Amino acid sequence: xxxxxxxxxxxxxxxxxxxxxxxxxxxxxxxxxxxxxxxxxxxxxxxxxxxxxxxxxxxxxxxxxxxxxxxxxxxxxxxxxxxxxxxxxxxxxxxxxxxxxxxxxxxxxxxxxxxxxxxxxxxxxxxxxxxxxxxxxxxxxxxxxxxxxxxxxxxxxxxxxxxxxxxxxxxxxxxxxxxxxxxxxxxxxxxxxxxxxxxxxxxxxxxxxxxxxxxxxxxxxxxxxxxxxxxxxxxxxxxxxxxxxxxxx
Length: 249
Fold this sequence. Notes:
two-stranded antiparallel sheet
């Protein structure tokens, strides 16, 4: 069995890779820095193929698919992504456009291309790592929340299409709150709610995927998930504006 994991050099991508290795999977792991990947997975060289790829570039996403098409990947895990924080009028446009390219376009391209192959052979799994942010708007992290809304909406629609076609292909969305990774440093943000251990979160995501769950929400976020659906929009906006603080550099 073979799995492709993007964002595999750190955080949940790295932890998911370790967990799948323990389950006997052969891995193809992707990050911009191949030297980092080689160092991280040097003890598993026989089971891991490291790939340098800039997923913010459309042509590199397509090349990644073409290079791995003959490998008959069983599981695609889209995990690469980053965030940013601050007042929307003050945040960097270039950083936001890179975020959109990585958090949306890379997910979209890889999901579409690999899904076509999965559907043809009637087997395969896709795990799209989203966020609780995918169910609501996020003042002071407006672009990041919007990218995760896209991933949630896209994945839900794909699920229903597969179901209507009676396909054996499965798609899952992992929607945690804050997780202890380097995300907060890159996003210049400090959350006012506890963060999950990345190992625990990653195992929860993989186990949920194998259980054919559509939406995988950690126990500490289940109430938040419900409230995001039923609470008045203006209340959700007010609460979310207090959850994250921009950290000035």
